[in-house]
Specification:
β5 and β6 form a beta hairpin. With 103 residues, this protein is an alpha+beta fold. The protein has three helices and six strands; from the N terminus they run βαββαβββα.
Length: 103
């Protein structure tokens, strides 16, 4: 019997932050925004705010997670988007079917 995936990744060329509104379907719910360059900074904010901040920055690694840490997305500085948690994996699989090859 095959085990369900626990994580998935896809390679993007324009930055995963442009997908935040798609992957975080509830824009009215706050998420954790964790810039990985600064180990002491964690922000509890709305997805659209995180996306706007990332739009103004040079590429760097960051993570997005729901309040209870049921899912997490991590983008590397190589434009690879990692997802963990059932909800995140389903979301990325759905995006992948329509748009991108899995890396």
């Amino acid at each position: 019997m095959a085990h369900p995936r626990k994580s998935i990744l896809i390679e993007l060329f324009n930055g995963a932050h442009r997908l935040i509104s798609d992957i975080c379907s509830n824009d009215d719910k706050k998420i954790w925004f964790i810039p990985c360059e600064d180990e002491e900074s964690v922000y509890y904010t709305y997805p659209n705010i995180a996306a706007r901040v990332l739009d103004e920055c040079l590429a760097f690694e960051y993570a997005l997670a729901d309040k209870k840490l049921k899912w997490m997305f991590i983008e590397s500085h190589h434009n690879v988007l990692y997802a963990t948690g059932i909800e995140a994996i389903h979301c990325l699989n759905a995006y992948n079917k329509d748009n991108q090859p899995i890396g």
